[in-house]
Amino acid sequence: MLLQKIKDKKGFTETEKNMAEYILSHGEDIVHMTIREFSDDSFSSPTAAMRFFKKLGCEGFKDFKVKYIKELQASPHDDLLDVNRPFYIGYSTSKIAKTILSLNNQALSEIYDNLDIHAMEKAAKLVTNANTVFLYGHGDSSIRARTFINKLFKINKLCILATDSNEEAGISNNATHKDVAVFISYRGGSSRFFECAKILRERKCPMIVLSSDFKTELTENCDVWLKIEDKEKSADNIATFYSQACFDYLLNVMYSLVYASSYTKSHNHKLQIDQYTAKR
Predict the structure, then answer these.
(1) How far is CA 178 from CA 14, 133, 167, 204, in A?
(2) Among 32, 180, 204, 227, which is 20 to 30 Å from 172 by CA?
């Protein structure tokens, strides 16, 4: 395949490797270039570029562009992206935009394929029946928690972000068996979360954990564990694109199931809340 040859760079000269890197970093932008623009931007020459395209099995630049765009369209997810560093120096705007789209598609496809339907249904039922939903999340995960809370309050579900004031242990002591606690933590929690889990267990409050696929004290003591793939390496990643896309998906499915469990009541309450908001 054309793309694979470019990625492998086998038998390429240094100039050809530079052209290959330029193609990989500019995606579909290549299709709109002339041979002169391509050679200037990739620090080569039109003659060297023509030799390179023929080496790839193409008759020339025009033939290369036709074959190249066909392969790009046939591989919309860019194979399996590195979730830690999905783009590099020199990527064009359109290439980065497509890469982030592909990364989100990859994350959603993987979380859907590995979704434990029974666990999700159990989690949604716990939230539906709870008097109060206690949310736990730090950093990016706290943003996911806030978004989840914003949805739930519109369908008359009382929520508390326990980690909002760094008093999660004390707040956890107010939970009862009629409530539910939801932990959002990629690495499966900190010692502070473990302390909260111990308190919640003593209070007989059910616990739901959203975390990556390895066991911790938190996941081993919860009632429902909704797992995502362990792919992010904090020491080398650009951002938590993958985990946050997965968390958003799981929470959105959970919210939708809670909403659907009493659809008409939920819808009417949300309409009422939306009307109040619109008046402000």
Answers:
(1) 67, 10, 21, 9
(2) 227
